[in-house]
Amino acid sequence: MIREKRFFVRDQDFKSKRIVLSSEESHHLKNVLRGKKGDPVILFNGEGEEFTGQVASLGPGNAVIAIEKKRRERIRGAISIVLVQALPKKKKMDFVIAKACELGVEEVMPLETDRTECKLGQAQLKRVSERWERIAVQSCKQSCLDWVPLIHPPATFKEMIHRVKGFEAVLIPHPDEAMPKFSEVIAEVKARVGKTSKPAMPRKIAVVIGPEGGFSDREIALANEHGLNFVYLGDLVLRTETASIVAVSLVKYAFNLC
C-alpha cells in the first residue's frame, strides 16, 4: 500500500484552487519524498478539513498544489481531552506532545509546578513553543489527523486551575491508594455526561500529570479547594511521560473514542 503524501497548510483560502506550501513543507515534498509534478497529495488545514490535489509545480523555494476537491471534514466529538503536563526534564516534553497528538488530544497545556526542574525563560520559550508546534503538526501528518492540537503557553498551577474552570472533569492521577479509583471516577463522569443533552461545544476533560517528584502539599491543597479530582491509577509507579499516555488512553477507552 502506497502511503499518502500529507501536508499541512495554514491560513490559506482553499477556494483559490492553488495552494503554495510553506518552505518547510515544500522541502519535505521535494527533497525528502522526492515528489514530482502531477503527484497526488493530501492537504489538511488543522481545523478538520482535508483536500485532495496534485503537485502543479516545484520551484526552488516552494511547491504549488492544484486543489481538486474537499475529501472530508471531520467534526469534533462530544468529548475533548486536554492534557495538562508538568514540564519534564530535557526533551521529554517533545515525546509527550508527539504521543498526545497521536492519541487525539485536542489541547496540551504545559505546567510549571513547585517541583518542576525545567523553567523556560522568554527567549527559550519562543524557540521551544515553535518546536512543539512542529512536533504537533508532524504527529498529525503521520497519524492522519485533521485537527492540530492547541499547544498552550506554560501555566502555573494556579493559572491552570482558572483555565480548567467549567470543564466537565479534571482528573489528577495520584499514587495514594486511598484516592478514588480512576475507573470509578471516570465512570461517574461518563454517567453524568450521558444524562445530559448533547452540548453545542465538546465537553472538556482535563488529565493533569504531575512532575517526577509529585505535586507539593500547597498544590494538592489548592486543587482540593477548587474541587479537582485526585484519582488512583494503580500500584505501579509511572514516569511522568508514561502516566500521560496511560491516563489519556483510559479516558479515550472509557468514552469509546478508540
What would your notes on this structure say?
The chain is of the alpha/beta class and about 260 residues long. The protein has two domains: about 5-75, Ribosomal Protein L25, Chain P (Beta Barrel); about 80-255, 3-Layer(aba) Sandwich (Alpha/beta knot), CATH 3.40.1280.10. It has helices at about 25-30, 90-100, 120-145, 155-165, 180-195, 215-225, 240-255; strands at about 5-10, 20, 40-45, 50-60, 65-75, 80-85, 105-110, 150, 155, 170-175, 205-210, 230. Strands 6, 7, 8, 9, 10, 11 and 12 form a seven-stranded parallel sheet that branches. A five-stranded mixed sheet has the order 1-3-4-5-2. Helix 3 links the parallel strand 7 and strand 8 (about 150). Helix 2 runs parallel beside helix 3. It is globular. The two termini are about 25 Å apart.
Query: N-to-C SSE series?
Result: EEHEEEEHEHEEHEHEHEH
Number of strands: 12
| Largest β-sheet summary | 7 strands, parallel
Taking all residues together, what is the mean pLDDT?
Answer: 88
What's the CATH class label of the largest domain?
Alpha Beta
Please state the overall shape, judged from the principal axes of the Cα atoms. globular
CATH architecture of the largest domain: 3-Layer(aba) Sandwich
How much of the polypeptide forms β-strand, as a percent range?
25-35%
CATH superfamily of the largest domain: SPOUT methyltransferase, trefoil knot domain
Number of H- or I-type helical stretches = 7
What is the first-to-last residue Cα distance? Answer: 23 Å
Tally the structural domains: 2
Helix percentage:
25-40%
